[in-house]
Fold each of these.
Amino acid sequence: MDDDNRVQWVYQAPDRQELEKRYDVWANEYDRDLQNSFGYIGPRLCAEHFAKHVPGDAHILDAGAGTGLVGIELARLGYCNIDGMDMSQGMLDEARKKGVYGELRQLILGEPLSYKDGEFDAVISVGVLTLGHAPASSLDELVRVVRANGHVIYSLRPDCTAPTDSVRSTLSWKVRVAGR
């Protein structure tokens, strides 16, 4: 399957269980497909933005870590206290190989996360809040696991996430709550 068709195949998963399976299958080719075939620079751009707001000694959660592309970029910028979570064990296995994460957990955004309230100084989530993946309601848990006055930094793909008033108000509310 070529790279473009593989992306469509993943995005067309009918449910969360199938989405997880498809990411497990794609995991060992994911980095090559995204970086070489698509020139994907989202992790680098988001990590650079993150670094403007979050101190270098922060305890960070990479929510939807995938194969660890964001973790690599954060480590390049000097961050060394990074944990990650993802729904796909195959993706987490690839992320572990990068050697930049302290702890990796298989968890699902949109469901309760097994982290304590305020456990992290910051959360970064790149390429996850998108069509058929993590819902906007995932931000409730991300805000919960970040300390007061911490940071939740995420990306949204405008071509895959309809900018409806409901999405805008959900995201706006989360930003206010995170600032407590």
Amino acid sequence: MDKKIVKKWSYSRYSQYKDCPAMYQWNYLMGKKRPPPSPAMARGLDIHKKAENFVNGKITGFPDVLKQFKPEFLQLRKEFKKKKGFCEPDISMNLDGTPATMETTDYFVGFADYAHYGDELTVIDYKTGRQYPGHQDQGHAYSTALLKMNPQYENINVEFWYLDSGAVKEFYHTQKDLTRMEGIWQRRIDKMYADKKFEKTPYQWCKSCNRHKRNGGDCSG
């Protein structure tokens, strides 16, 4: 990575830019106030909180919304109690590869739902709703940061648990992939920061975008 280029980013920022540069500009560069979460987003946040609080022992009864993964969540709870796993770890990273926090990082901002540091590094992200191709990019971003910060691990496995359907999607990367992975993200982020036009790019969720006129913005989609 070019140390002269210091550009703070996160997967969510990149994802918005990839879908529509104008949406990214509105949300991250223009400082526009975001509307309350949609019903689907509110539901997802509620389920994530239930999952976190079950694993860390703050609630005792098993949440019905997690039933597709009951054995798995019971195992995470045991790991957490033994301090072999971590809920909501901050996986932010500085440009030089040192661990950081969301507040202090000068480069990558990231959070995962669960991380297990054993013989192999495993990160789990809970998803509600459908599977989307972008989740592969999210797993790739997490893997890039975690491999960089944890050179003692040769491998990393990122799992997406689709809580509604019971499906699991896994992405596996190794240290030998790291240089190539870093290059991919550096090129993507360079492009994002070099953009001066932020063109409006219609996509399937335009009408739910904060910038759409129906939501008080200046874009007709």
Amino acid sequence: MLIKSRDPGRYADYQQFESIRKLRAGFSNVFLASLTGTASLRSMGGDKAKQFFTNCPTHSQWFKKFSKGCLSRMGQVVKQDMAVSLELMHALVEMLEKEWEHASIPIQRSAVASVGAYATIAFCGSFRGPEVFLTDLFGLNKYLAADLSVDGKAYVIIPLLGRFKNELGNQYHLTPLIATTKSGIPVRIWVQRLVDTRLKEGRRNGPAFGDQAGRISYPWYEREILERFQVVQQ
């Protein structure tokens, strides 16, 4: 780990602690899968909760203190991504609205609807990026057809289908979002456009943000959104 720390890193002329600590996980996995590690492993507990006893060197008290001292001496350089502001989001929605009006062929309208729906759902639902891709097309179409209004305010249901945290199996997670936010972000309009373009493609099931085969291109969405952010910044 100390030798690895002297390699050049992304943010400094040395590797960060979070990078070199991965060597510990790799060593531990190899050790526990070896003959020595398997023979020395002991467990205690029931079906749900267990504790394991091992003589793996990276689980020792010495290594624990070494890691703590290493982190305290190296420090950490953290460079977080800037948050998407409300002004930036409105600029993006306005840009996408103009693109939607000028889109003349189905593939263009499908691309614009995908980016618009993804951006509004992620922003207004406070979802992490990968969580939006769990949106189910069948559920989205089902709940859009229902009249969901409370105290005169319309809502749209975002159905996420997948496995979350320690759950077993895939389950539905229904998240209600206001149809139009106070600042004017039209969530329902973009969700409706997404569903309409998928129906014209003959698709009613599967991931709402996937292609005909159900595949999701994560880099494509990232590239499409960041390129528009750059235009706004310029």
Amino acid sequence: MSKHIAITGASGFVGQHLVPYLMKAGFWVYPVNLRMRDKFPLPELVHGATVIHLAGKAHDHKGTAKPEEYFEVNTELTKTVFNHFLQSKATLFIHFSTVAAITDEHVEGILKEDAAPHPVTPYGQSKLQAEQYLLQQELPTGKKVFILRPAMIHGPGDKGNLTLLYSIVSKGMPYPLAAFKNQRSFLSIGNLNYAIEKLLEKAAEVPSGIYNLVDDIPVSSVDLVRMIAELTGRKEKIWSVPRSLIQAIAKVGDILPLPINSKRLAKLTSNYIVSNDKIKKALGISAFPITAREGLIKTIKSFASE
């Protein structure tokens, strides 16, 4: 196994955790600056036996991004990087997609890799188109592609939906969404780092393809609220406001700058359980090293320290 790795998007949230983790594990990491896209072939790919493609446009929960921006970055830029991977000496391409490439909405049952895709947002659609392009290309002998679909990633420095929930509970405000009974899969940054290291170690044994990447056990939003209250020393205030009223307020939040809008409400309250059986079988493990609760506690504590 080569220790040379080229990483796009190294300055993003995942990259800021993954790069030092891999360096500590003894890998040589070459950040790829995609802002210099006029300079090809990418010199980092000459050195890198593995390309980890993290760069992408994240889901915009405020709804201000233009649809074409997602396709330009998540689809077209991925095509460009992958084409240069095919022409390079690199042997492994690890592409970070998302479970939203299958569906941006709630999940009935448990989401597996072979589910029929039906993304409805430009974010999910652009990620799906990138996946389809990678799978359609003929791989030269000796090259592999792993497409990873993480669920909501969290960890120290996270600025996503968990921060919204934390700000509500830590200030002693009531959580009014108990009427929504849900379970959601998350992914701690610690388990993400571990999975990448294991994939690099076992690359020769793992077949090319799509792999979901989530913690082992889903967590409900009410359980998250209780965790935050416990860790911040607040008395938990869990209210069961009628769903119809909450949904009406969220629709207003789609127009006005309220703390909650339809997208955030869906993230906090819908069911979204994802199977990670395929990647655990590929890695030869029965469980990830960090439990969902342990990972969330670490993230919540980091909010307090910030």
